[in-house]
Design brief:
The structure is a single chain. This protein is 40% helix and 16% strand. With 255 residues, it is α/β, with parallel strands linked by helices. The longest helix has 17 residues, at 237-253. Bound molecules: adenosine-5'-diphosphate and magnesium ion. Residues 16-17, 40, 42, 44 line the site of magnesium ion. To B.subtilis soj.
């Protein structure tokens, strides 16, 4: 059975999308069948996987609204080695369009049931807010992967996020758990990093992943080529780090 992992943090710019794309690519390179779901209206995960978000006839929004099946919208045979359920700016309408629909939290979950048997891992790139799209991701997910930057405000907002996870777990999705806390754009040389590291270890214990993703220019450049860094610059530090992360998650979650 496939595992569905939502990359979530309501803070923007912490490396959710970058990690979703590069983890998808690294897991695929290690032989896993991967689907990446782009649930952010910014459509950056789609773009970073070689899909032009402006050219979509149908998107994950149509799937959420029950107007298309996931299997009809999934993009296959891309330059990347995984499949993508693409999203774009149309998703901004999701909140309103889902307002008076039934079971609006579990739209994604139901839709993924149709296709999840074809994959070992489904990664969901969430928008930078705790809205109905994120609730759909958390309702569909088995695990939550939380990327964060080791900065002074890293922990701010995390308790709100963890409360949301807890609420979804209690009310809709009892199987949901935190798969890991991922430190991105990591620079271990600074004393601030060491201080935040300690706080994270004290707070999360075992959930803090061992692998950290360094700040690396190749990681930032790759999306402009519509490729994961693992294909754009496979020997870069960023690429290596995402490979190590994929291996850690495979062991940890038996993917
Ligand atoms: P989010 O999805 O959480 O908003 P992104 O993945 O879009 O965050 O990352 C925010 C910005 O930081 C992007 O411009 C991205 O290219 C850059 N970035 C992310 N991870 C790294 C990294 N390891 N090294 C360098 N730049 C990075
Ligand atoms: Mg993003």
């Amino acid at each position: 059975m496939s595992q569905i992992i939502a990359l979530t943090n309501q803070k923007g710019g912490v490396g959710k999308t970058t990690s979703a794309v590069n983890l998808a690519a690294s897991l695929a390179q290690l032989g896993r069948r991967v689907l990446l779901v782009d649930l952010d209206p910014q459509g950056h995960a789609s773009m970073g996987s070689g899909i032009d978000k402006h050219e979509l006839d149908v998107s994950v929004l149509d799937v959420l609204l029950g107007e298309a099946k996931a299997s009809e919208v999934i993009a296959r045979n891309l330059p990347v080695k995984f499949d993508v359920l693409p999203g774009n700016g149309d998703l901004t309408a999701a909140e309103v369009e889902l307002l008076d629909s039934k079971a609006r939290q579990s739209r994604l979950s139901s839709a993924l049931n149709e296709v999840r048997a074809n994959y070992d891992v489904v990664l969901i790139d969430c928008p930078p807010s705790l809205n109905m799209l994120t609730v759909n991701a958390l309702t569909a997910a088995d695990g939550v992967l939380i990327p964060l930057q080791c900065e002074f405000y890293a922990l701010e907002g995390l308790s709100t996020l963890l409360d949301t996870v807890e609420q979804i777990k209690e009310n809709i999705n009892p199987a949901l758990s935190v798969s890991g806390i991922l430190r991105t754009m990591y620079d271990k040389r600074t004393s601030l990093t060491r201080e935040v590291d300690k706080q994270l270890r004290d707070f999360f214990g075992d959930a803090l992943l061992k692998t950290t993703i360094p700040r690396n220019i190749k990681v930032a450049e790759a999306p402009s080529h519509g490729l994961p860094v693992t294909q754009y610059a496979r020997f870069s530090r960023g690429s290596q780090a995402y490979r190590v992360l994929a291996k850690e998650l495979i062991r940890r979650l038996t993917l």
